[in-house]
Amino acid sequence: MRDDGWEPLLAIAKSFCEESDIDILDMNAHYTRARGRSRRQDEGSSRTMEHHFRADIFTAAIDFQLQELKNRFNEQAVELLILSVALSPKDAYKSFKIDDICKLAEKFYPRDFTEQGKICLKFQLQHYKLDVPKHQNFQNMSTLSELCRGLAVSEKSKIYPLIDRLVRLVLTLPISTATTERAFSAMKLIKTRLRTRMKDEFLVDHLIVYIEKEIAKNFTLEMIMDEFYSISDRRRA
């Protein structure tokens, strides 16, 4: 986006202005800042309107977002996301790369694939590359969930079981990550300074109820009391 996104964005903006009858700026015109600089400084500058919008706004905004992403995601998480893209069916499987997919399985899912399985995975990917992207039922797909559904419906998941397993593992990544983040966020709210002596077992039980609020709402006090009564009856028996 930073390297190649400016020209398409400018074309879309010009098209919108033409359709909405809005005056289009001359991007080759000299740029003059309204405040903060003297006219003499502006006259001595060779900055154009295009340079201002591209360098000072477009590129600066993307650089800010990139820095924010680097602060939020470490190198390992970024590598995981990049390698996962190799499985994506978007743009006619443009990102499909056998080496990246094999590296994904070997580095991030070593317990889910044996050494023999990793070798078989590479052979399956070679056949998969010649089969699935050209199959009529797998055209115009854009997400991994659509690909996973397609493999199951066409029963190609039985032909390429290791690839199907890897796709399913990648699909569970957002769920597992979100659950972990929710758990840490809830822990900050529950285990406060006044509750530092809370034991682990009680903390875990409390967190489950707090995180799964929607499920917990289905249980009434009467249901909980009846469960405790039944436990005490079983103990007496």
Summed up:
The chain has 237 residues and is mostly helical.
Q: Would you list the SSEs in sequence order as H and E?
A: HHHHHHHHHHHHHH
What overall form do the CA principal axes indicate?
extended
> What low-confidence regions span 5 or more consecutive residues with pLDDT below 50?
none
The SS-based structural class is mainly alpha
Distance from N terminus to C terminus (CA atoms, Å) equals 70 Å
Largest sheet, in brief, is: none
**Mean pLDDT over all positions:** 83
Radius of gyration: 28 Å
Individual helix count = 14
Residues in β-strands, percent: under 5%
Number of domains: 3
Assign a percent range to the helix content. Answer: 55-70%
* Count of individual beta strands: 0
Overview of the structural elements:
The longest helix is centred in the N-terminal third of the chain and has 24 residues, at 49-72. The chain has three domains: 6-72, no CATH class; 76-171, no CATH class; 175-236, no CATH class. Helix 6 (98-108) packs antiparallel against helix 7 (115-131) and helix 11 packs across helix 12. Helix content is 68%, strand content 0%. By secondary structure, the protein is an all-alpha fold. It is built from 14 helices and no strands. It has helices at 6-19, 39-43, 49-72, 75-84, 90-93, 98-108, 115-131, 144-153, 156-159, 161-171, 173-190, 200-211, 213-216, 221-236. The mean pLDDT is 83. The radius of gyration is 28 Å and the shape is extended.
Key words describing this protein structure:
14 helices, mainly alpha, extended, 237 residues, single chain, 3 domains
